[in-house]
Amino acid sequence: MFPIKKYRYYIPRSDKPGGFGFSRKHDVHTGIDLYCEEGTEVHAIVSGKVVNTGRFTGKDVGSSWWNDTDFIMIESEYSYGNILYGEIEIREDIKIGDEIKTGEIIGKVKQVLKNDKGLPMSMLHIEEYDNIIEPVTWYNDNPRPIGLLDPYDLLFQELMLMSTNGKFI
Fold first, then answer.
1. Band of the pLDDT at 169, cuts 50, 70, 90?
2. How does pLDDT run across 32-88, given as a tens digit for each residue?
């Protein structure tokens, strides 16, 4: 299940802003940003258990240049890693330990950017981890943190499954 229905942008690669491994001013991007409108519903990619939630961006977590947003991490019951959905507002009734089904709405995208950079100011941020339940920071000039995976193949595969005859539904 692709996390955004009727997705109309591209999945950025590592050489584009929003792509996994893209070098930024202070760090390296640890996930993939799926640009969309604020309030877009976020669907679980796969079924699993909620293993963590919390503040993702904003002054409370040392990134006051961004608006306050939250994250939810779901441990996949399949062979995928733990999936983090960030820059969202989590559905109020979800808590750690809850079982989530594929396609279930888990929240809505919040506007993360305070300043217009020429791209949408709201996005769903997706990270994938192997046996890690806390978001990590990838500092410039450091190797990729152990356990941090590139979610591109997972997202691309799910986007292709969402298409019919080459047209996205």
1. very low
2. 999 999 999 999 999 999 999 999 999 999 889 999 999 999 999 877 789 999 999
Q: How confident is the model over 155-165, as pLDDT tens digits? A: 999 988 887 54
Interatomic CA distance for residues 43 and 68, integer angstroms: 21
- Phi and psi angles of residue 61, each rounded to the nearest 5 degrees, phi first: -120, 25
Count of CB atoms within 10 A of residue 124's CB?
Answer: 26
